[in-house]
Amino acid sequence: MRRLKPLPLLGLAVGCAGAVAGTYALLVRTYRGQRIDQGAFDGRALATSTAHDAAQQLLTTISVGTLALAVLVLVAQALLRGRVALALVAGTTIGGAVVTTQLLKHVLTRPDLLIDGRLYENSFPSGHVSIAFGVGMAATLVAPARARRLVSVLAVLYGSAVGIAVIAAGWHRPSDVAGALFVVTAWAAVAGLLDALLERRRAGAATWPQPNVARHYLVLGGLLLVAGYATTLAIVAAGRAGAIDWTAVDGAFAGACVTVVGLAAVLMAALLAALRATLPTRRAAARRRAPSAQRQRVAR
After folding, report:
1. What secondary structure does DSSP assign to the chain, as a single string?
2. CATH says 7-280 is which class?
3. Gap between the Cα atoms of 196 and 280, Å rounded
4. Where are the domains of the chain?
5. What is the chain's alpha carbon radius of gyration, rounded to the nearest angstrom?
6. Which whole number is the average pLDDT over 247-268?
7. What is the pLDDT of residues 4-20, one digit of tens each?
């Protein structure tokens, strides 16, 4: 039995839960946060009709029926491999994220701080993004070892695409998307720990992509995240100061889109790194045992 180190996944889950609270407190409950969020959201009005149509088409892929089908496919795939624990992992990731999102959306409120004549209901966090990224994260956890790298890439692309689409369609603000990404990652970390606890005797429970995969996600995602958020912040601030015309606010929308992609990639990097650190592969464990075994032979 390999040694289990739960702290990486527990830390990721707690950190993402704190990020949900922080995103809500900073971007929804403060005037400056709402101004940044709304500025990026308003920029989507300047997007082309083709972009709006594409966003609507993508969002039609998410429904109760498609969610149920995705869960059934993931559970069936896990059961066919004889991995009951992975079936629980898929259900925990998707079900936990969707239920948490809906509860938060009904419990949390959005104060009217902008005083622009428009009333807003709370839409934090996004249910559509929770479903899309939740299915992607669950698929990454359930996928066979040789397919996990590709599945993780598709999960980031699909989750971020839906995140951009809900903003472009006028359904959600960027903060709603960020909150959903954090909720999903928290539940994916919990599900990954559940898999590690139930299946640590098996090799498949810990066969994760090499560390350089997570590093690639982290570097690329981090650059996109910083560049996108800095662009959004600068354009909204310049617009408020009168330094640029408000028709340039579409740049803030573009910055928000880049931020969404970067955040999704960074969170996937964090999950893959935490999974690998929580339950090392058999090969890594063998390498650690080799020096001690050699010392014992020398002592004899």
Report:
1. -PPP--HHHHHHHHHHHHHHHHHIIIIISSHHHHHHHHHHHHGGGGS-HHHHHHHHHHHTT-SHHHHHHHHHHHHHHHHHTT-HHHHHHHHHHHHHHHHHHHHHHHH------S-SS-------S-HHHHHHHHHHHHHHHHS-GGGHHHHHHHHHHHHHHHHHHHHHTTS--HHHHHHHHHHHHHHHHHHHHHHHHHHTTSGGGG----HHHHHHHHHHHHHHHHHHHHHHHHHHHHHHHTSS-GGGGHHHHHHHHHHHHHHHHHHHHHHHHHHHHHS--HHHHHHHHHHHHHHHHHH-
2. mainly alpha
3. 10
4. 7-280
5. 21
6. 85
7. 788 999 999 999 999 99
Q: What distances in angstroms separate CA 71 from CA 142, 158, 180, 224, one per listed residue? A: 11, 16, 18, 31
| Model confidence, pTM | 0.86
